[in-house]
Amino acid sequence: MIISIVYDSGYGHTKKIAEAVAKGAKQIEGADVNIIHIGEEEYPWETLEKSDAIIFGSPTYNGSISAKLKTFFEASTRAAWMDFKWRNKITAGFTNSGAYSGDKLNSLITMALFAAQHGMVWVGLDLHPANPDNPLPTKDLNNLGSWLGAMAHSLNDSPEVTPGESDLKTAEYLGKRVAGITSRFIK
Amino acid sequence: MIISIVYDSGYGHTKKIAEAVAKGAKQIEGADVNIIHIGEEEYPWETLEKSDAIIFGSPTYNGSISAKLKTFFEASTRAAWMDFKWRNKITAGFTNSGAYSGDKLNSLITMALFAAQHGMVWVGLDLHPANPDNPLPTKDLNNLGSWLGAMAHSLNDSPEVTPGESDLKTAEYLGKRVAGITSRFIK
Amino acid sequence: MIISIVYDSGYGHTKKIAEAVAKGAKQIEGADVNIIHIGEEEYPWETLEKSDAIIFGSPTYNGSISAKLKTFFEASTRAAWMDFKWRNKITAGFTNSGAYSGDKLNSLITMALFAAQHGMVWVGLDLHPANPDNPLPTKDLNNLGSWLGAMAHSLNDSPEVTPGESDLKTAEYLGKRVAGITSRFIK
Amino acid sequence: MIISIVYDSGYGHTKKIAEAVAKGAKQIEGADVNIIHIGEEEYPWETLEKSDAIIFGSPTYNGSISAKLKTFFEASTRAAWMDFKWRNKITAGFTNSGAYSGDKLNSLITMALFAAQHGMVWVGLDLHPANPDNPLPTKDLNNLGSWLGAMAHSLNDSPEVTPGESDLKTAEYLGKRVAGITSRFIK
């Protein structure tokens, strides 16, 4: 089972989330996880075609996904969409920005619309929003209250400082969940 | 395998689409299909809990799903969401309005966000947009060009007249696709 | 200058925000402010037709505006939309939910689409997201990071406790901003 | 009164719509209209800062605005957003794609969210959807049924052929409407 995580990251915050998603995915037996940082190499179309799941990640800049991730989306038209090479792959998304809400939802929606165009199957988060009164583990997960995908919040500081513990654990949960559903789906 | 179609319909146009979705779902072996017209009976929570897939349908009124379907959504908070009774069910959506585009996308997005809150797994359309130059069958399917779910277009006339052939065939395709993926997923 | 605030509130949290918006609007000279709690009275179509600005507010339930506000939206089709009685009125929106992000953006988008259908002119927030390093007053305003409209966050407690100070001040800012722009526009 | 139209166009279809918007804007007395094709020159920040209205246009590719327009959006963070240089400017949007609906709404929403972040004031279309039974002129305008902004539909052919007459007239109407409202607003 191959899980690929395709993401862009401007200053390293989204990269940290991508790594947390990967950590979660690896917890499912048989998961072979690729982390692909868009722009650092050729787009790996063959790896993506062989993947059972592709998870997209992006900072939210100016109310939507980054231009770099969008450039990759556009390149996928010829490389994958024309022949529906990603049809029925499991997919999900995550995003980060410098505000608790901050139009992040529009980035996740934009990813979900893109994935739907490819005929992919979208998985979100089955988590109540974080609340001190919740039973564990949802007490601490899903701090921002997001379901379509995982959201994280970073300040203008080092990725060592933000995103915080809850956001990283939520991303890890998403990765594990996607790998688990993929495992069930490809049997 | 139980597939439930939960929809609202003001004048019968969306009802016709719901029936087309059901017709498609029944083409998959083993599919037991329920059509639930919201508001005509008690909300069938037990049937929904037993369902392997739940497909949502609504007219697009004033830029979003109907208040009647939204009322059902709100009732699901206690009936299903608190305990994640719909977790990992397959889901999809369809909508109809009196314009080719007509903010229908917002209705589908609103359904997808609702379904994600329930931890459901969203399936869209793996179809190129209709075009005379397309190879069959996508020559005639997906006339409006929608992927997150199925869209249909009706005029202020009898449901006998609109939605048209392509929209109904697209809805049928969606039903079959959802049932097929559900069948694969629950094995 | 007449400013009307049309809102729904389930447990009183959104009502508090509506009052904060009203407080802000009244700070502009000549502003006559109506607060209309949907469902407590007949829909006041005449007041709305005479208004120079209409601001919409709703809790975010299940990923979108409340069914009660949506019911009002649907009633406006005959009462106002057919003859574009709200054409060119200034408009804005606010929403509240029990999570920092919590799909609130979809509620604001749904309001903005509705308002656009009516030919209204949409005003959002010209505020940087809250940050301790910001110059005043944006240090404390816009805590959740929203621009299309004002967002607030409440817990399952008394409206006396949440929404918090920043969210209420942000709502007040929105009211003042809408009234100020309306004042400029109707001259 | 300065109206600027900032757009991207891949094959010339969106360019034709931009020209129709400009044609409409010029019908308002005193309107000085700039058409800015993103990517063909340096981003004209000074012209934009002096503009009373900025209208955004983009093809819808893969479910959202083009990466080229998004790159411009991101550049505006330092050039305009930090100091709210576009605060209270009138704004609007248009988009084109190869399907009647085709996720175009997400492009318009993405533009509206971006504009809201800049503190701009959004104007849409006050038009009923096209219908043979409508009174003129809305009989022929707004063929696709869009309000947040103007939508157009093009095939894979020459921009001489598509977008069609109704879409171009609708774009022209939007340009005139934005210029008219801007004229009223800046007095």
Would you mind describing this structure in some detail?
Four copies of one chain form a homotetramer. With 187 residues, the first copy, chain A, is α/β, with parallel strands linked by helices. Chain A is globular and about 45 Å long. Chain A has a single domain (2-186), classed as Rossmann fold (3-Layer(aba) Sandwich). The first copy, chain A, contains five helices and seven strands. In chain A, strands 1, 2, 3, 4, 5, 6 and 7 form a seven-stranded mixed beta sheet that branches. Strand 6 (121-123) of chain C pairs antiparallel with strand 6 of chain D, so a sheet runs across the interface.
Keywords:
homotetramer; 187 residues; alpha/beta; Rossmann fold; 7-stranded mixed β-sheet; 20% strand; globular
Structure at a glance:
The structure is a homotetramer of 187-residue chains. Chain A has helices spanning 13-25, 45-50, 67-81, 104-117, 165-186, and strands at 2-7, 32-37, 53-61, 64-65, 90-97, 121-123, 150-153. In chain A, strands 1, 2, 3, 4, 5, 6 and 7 form a 7-stranded mixed beta sheet that branches.
Any idea how many domains of chain A? 1
Structural class of chain A: alpha/beta
Strand content of chain A: 15-25%
Mean pLDDT of chain A: 94
Chain-wise SSE layout:
The structure is a homotetramer of 187-residue chains.
Chain A: E1 2-7, H1 13-25, E2 32-37, H2 45-50, E3 53-61, E4 64-65, H3 67-81, E5 90-97, H4 104-117, E6 121-123, E7 150-153, H5 165-186
Parallel strand pairs in A: 1-2, 1-3, 3-5, 5-6, 5-7
Antiparallel strand pairs in A: 3-4
Helix pairs in contact in A: 1-5
